[in-house]
# Entry
Amino acid sequence: MNLDPHGEMLLRQYRELRPTLQQLADEASNQLRHALREQDIYITAMEHRVKTEKSLAGKLELKGAKYRSIDDITDLVGLRVITFYTDEVDKVAAIAKRVFDIDWQESVDKRKLHKLDSFGYNSLHYICRLKTGGPRFELQMRTALQHVWSTIEHDTGYKGDVKIPDVYLRQFNRLAGMMELMDDEFSRLRIVLTNYRRQTLALVKNGQLDDVPLSCDTFRSYLELQPFDRLNKRIAAVNQAEIWPVSMMVYLPVLESFGLESLGDVQRFIDENSDDAHQLALSQLAITDLDILSSNTALQYLCLVHVLKHNGGRDGLKSLYDLINGESDANGMLADMMMEQAKTLQFMQ
Amino acid sequence: MKTTIQEQDGNIVAILVGNLDTAVAAETEKAMSPLNDVEGKDIIIDCTDLAYISSAGLRIFLGILQSAKAKDRHVYIKGINDTVRSIFTITGFSNIFEFK
# Structure
């Protein structure tokens, strides 16, 4: 690297400052990470680095005269936050404004620099300082797709010495436009899905269960209404058993395998089978002194009754146990035991 | 009821022999209590020679599972006979544990 005396002087200042810069990079990163966590902002990645001597020397060789002292170079420390969605870039920026002092004269929103008919590097850059003072640093905020575009652009040497023919530049810009469109579409899709989820949960709360399709989200909300609580308590009363809370989500694939499509179907499944499920549970538990049951006991017996009433027989029960417990030969033994117990019950006659 | 705890292939193994009924639950719970302090290892409860388990026994197993899950570790139950398996099943706990 061929530096003039001014460039050499800046490089010496950098070497002296380097330990401070490393501390600054760590501290700034910690402060921002903590603030993002407090606000429940989920990001794809966060990186921080101190500019290498080689990279700085390259910069000084090109435009060293522009800087009077090392303090004029604002990207010696760099932080980068990569978000999932475009609107989260603005959320991160709002939080950064609270955590750091921003140098507005030097900060730039590259997203707003493009002309109406141009596409390319889209990122929000803030020049910041810790509230406690010290050197300035650069904070870049962009989406994962913007990051991909920017990384590939950098990697392909787009900014290199060789003049890139217009046809290839156009290809790059077309891709940038596509990325921008995808970013917007992902954000839009997220809003649509959030609204859909909200509306569906409102239907569950209002008891309009037939209008709510059975899914992971809706079943979880439905469980908040404790639909199996009454039957669990009836079964537990047999031995004055304690009910041990466990997740019931493992039964969702079972209910789906029964062809239940809406929460209304699930409610009918409970209503139609509760008495028989109670009878079956009674036949098993009353002859024991077992006084602890999992909270999915009711659901388990409802499913067993459903299979038995639909003539699933031994194979149907084995398949049910395979779904609940994972496939195993031992489930065949459980199916045999259940068939034996159930055959005397009224609903099997 | 006999309880032995040993380390095997990087796991902690508790070997239970006999009937884990209410009468022996307190002493078994005490004998198995080191399992609650296991760090960085999975737990295997070897039930090959366990003839029966009562509610009190289930509570001991659930306590061990709770403490292991809090440390992001697994609890495996190995070699249970049909009687013990059916007790896990009729009480709705068969899908809570991992069986080997």
Observations:
- The first strand of chain A starts at residue 43 and ends at 50.
- Residues 5-161 of chain A form a domain with the Beta Polymerase; domain 2 fold (CATH 3.30.460.10).
- Residues 166-205 of chain A form the longest helix (40 residues).
- Chain A has twelve helices and eight strands.
